[in-house]
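Task card 7
Instruction: Convert sequence to structure tokens.
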Amino acid sequence: MKYLIVVDMQNDFVDGALGTKEAEKIVPGVAEKIRHFDGRILYTKDTHENNYLETAEGKKLPVAHCIRGTKGWELVPEIQKLAEAAGHSEGANEIEKPTFGSVELGKLLARENEKEPIDSITLVGLCTDICVISNAMLIKAFLPEIQIIVDASCCAGVTPESHRQALAAMKVCQIEVINEE
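Output:
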């Protein structure tokens, strides 16, 4: 079984509060990856509450984003349509995470691997240098023998430089980076 983890492809990270032109550019590629992926697809959603600015993250990044129930929290329309078309009802195969890496995702994948061995786990999404790297490393800790892949062409970082730095860091940690420029 193969897994595709679509990390935080939410409005606030693409064209909202923390959006970038690089994030906007990867949406078609991520959509294409989803359309042609032969395996199970999971979607993470950065999820904060109204008290975000009072949290440790909010104090270091004082930009309210991905507040539960807002438009910015929702998956970008193109990705949401694909999730729905695949029969994923609202919330199905979505993992809400209040911080960069999702322990729940790691535990879920470890349980699934016990039921049916996982061949590989591919990650795409935003931001390469925060949530993609955090989840890739967390998954590697839960499943050190499983091939973990990051498709660089379907990721964007806070900046192009921090994107490249995160890819380099993941390679050193034995995460396979593909489609790098």
